[in-house]
Amino acid sequence: MSTTQGARARARIEVTAAIKDEARRQLAAEGAAKLSLRAVARELGMVSSALYRYFPSRDDLLTALIIDAYDSVGESAETAHAEVVDAGPLRRWISVCEAVRGWALAHPHEYALIYGSPVPGYVAPETTVPPAARVALLLIGIARDAHQAGALTEPPLPADLHPEAERMVADFAGDLPPGVAVALVAAWAELYGLVSFELFGQFRRVVEDRGPFFRHAVRRLGLGVGLADG
């Protein structure tokens, strides 16, 4: 790459980052539904036509922000897991869940973008799926490791859920028992329910000491998946 090309590439990276930073500021101030490319361009001192060379539409910018947010929470969870990778499955599970909560509390508007109300008129493309799956795949991996080590107990499964459980196993749970697959999906949803209740104020005057409460709740989720205590 020539010096000129390298300078252009660096400039594009810097401008793209500036656009995203301003868009995140607008998300915090106005919410995703009111995100405007014209407003972003105005705040950056750019003409709209120049900004469109980076993001052709509002939805393209939203997609970039969504992918960044999913990657950010995924990276936080993976980093936390790496620090306890030699611990027991339940400890690893709790560490991942606490990392998700910590990220959400530090990035409330980005959390709201990916786990809050849908943005009217926006349909997320397939490119958002792999980043969105990072935390879930980490939790599935913990359960799989426990299963292979003989430290996983399959939760009971009602007869009418067996067909759906078998589909889940085939779609994303690999060699895990069907009851574990169902419990994992429930735990995944409940994890984000716990975080959302805290972040969006539903725990006000209900749960005050929220850190220990969260740790206890996600520990119960791990036990419900079948992870051995300890």
From TrEMBL:
Keywords: DNA-binding, Transcription, Transcription regulation
InterPro entries: Homeodomain-like_sf (IPR009057), HTH-type_TetR-like_transc_reg (IPR050109), HTH_TetR (IPR001647), MT1864/Rv1816-like_C (IPR025996), Tet_transcr_reg_TetR-rel_C_sf (IPR036271)
SUPFAM superfamilies named in the record: Homeodomain-like (SSF46689), Tetracyclin repressor-like, C-terminal domain (SSF48498)
A Pfam family the protein falls into: TetR_C_33
Domain HTH tetR-type: 13-73
DNA-binding region: 36-55
Protein name (database record): TetR/AcrR family transcriptional regulator
Highest classification ranks of the organism: Bacteria, Bacillati, Actinomycetota, Actinomycetes, Kitasatosporales
